[in-house]
């Protein structure tokens, strides 16, 4: 199931950006691209920049006005309108993602991105219900169009993923030793440290404790534990031969 | 104050991507760009794609190997290693941002991005302490390089912005060794393993690699590393006496 969320690009100037947007969308599981009066489309540069998201470009819906692109939507979110006379309630990218994922169950959601240089015009902003603002450094606050789309789609995908049951499985190689095996290892470490004279039986101090804490934290797998014990055995053998 | 976090690009093929990365970084308040053996740099295309981040490109540090780029770093995070035999502990982009912002107080943090097509090689992954994975759609899981950088930098900027009184302060005891100190330890471990006969110089197999992966994952503190080296020295002494 794909989220019923469309990305709407208004009068995009640079075809490379359109391609990069298609890729950014598909990477995050979104497929509905709407192009309002694009300056140069279809174009070879758009195709090149789309990577393996050519299908998103080919299925893109080209329209002549924003109102056409959003006619069947119930929620329309515009991107960073900067300072405008008419202000919309502002959402962070996370809030935008939450709201979009909730509302797409009912009707298509549109997230609208303006022109590269001038953004959305006032009459376009007035067709949006919210604006989403990506926080940026004041030193250089203007993101490339496709990068802005990437961030918005990334936040949507996070919400989409969170709703799914976790399918991460443990493999055989990841198997962890039992507690009793770990304790036997700690004893082995202590024996070997004494065998080389590294630790004095009578004054062990905190050295061994530090080492043991380190190995607890590392959580060796069964396999790693067996390698460590092999090394310690080779150390003990040396020490015995010496005596 | 800029975060002491550097973005390291390994053998980037496409100069446009380098420019787009510079822009993505500056948009999110990051300025330290390291380029490991870039295929085409400096280049007009990189400059064009950087927008108003030409300063980031001009200040970029070009080096010939990953180890040079990260020698003075204490935390090195690699991007999405896909399926590899030696696994690094995985971070989400948010966790990567939290960890980087905390640890950059002590020493520079490096976030490493691999080649466009083939990513990071095994010997490069082995120089990282963690990997960061950006969740993507299984239909098309490969992000454009600059888009991946954008997401990572965006999450860092969120943490930077949140400007919480950072309660996760580093204490002297938690201080981490620099990469070059870790490499010296790995060498010491290898020497000691050979000295006891645990590992045969001519047929080291994967045993040592497994051990090294374990210690990378454990991330010994400076103090723990010095205890480990003390133990290894005592092991070597035994072996020498024996001869």
Describe what is shown at a glance:
The first copy, chain A, contains 10 helices and 7 strands. Chain A is α/β, with parallel strands linked by helices and 243 residues long.
Detail the topology: elements first, then pairings.
2 copies of one chain form a homodimer.
Chain A: E1 5-10, H1 15-27, E2 32-36, H2 44-49, H3 54-58, E3 61-63, H4 66-70, E4 75-79, E5 90-91, H5 93-103, E6 109-113, H6 122-125, E7 130-132, H7 145-162, H8 179-195, H9 207-218, H10 222-242
Parallel strand pairs in A: 1-2, 1-6, 2-3, 4-6, 4-7, 5-7
Helix pairs in contact in A: 1-7, 5-7, 8-10
Keywords (chains A, B): Cytoplasm, Methyltransferase, S-adenosyl-L-methionine, Transferase, tRNA processing
InterPro entries (chains A, B): Alpha/beta_knot_MTases (IPR029028), RNA_MeTrfase_TrmJ/LasT (IPR004384), SpoU_MeTrfase (IPR001537), tRNA_m1G_MTases_N (IPR029026)
Family (chains A, B): Belongs to the class IV-like SAM-binding methyltransferase superfamily. RNA methyltransferase TrmH family.
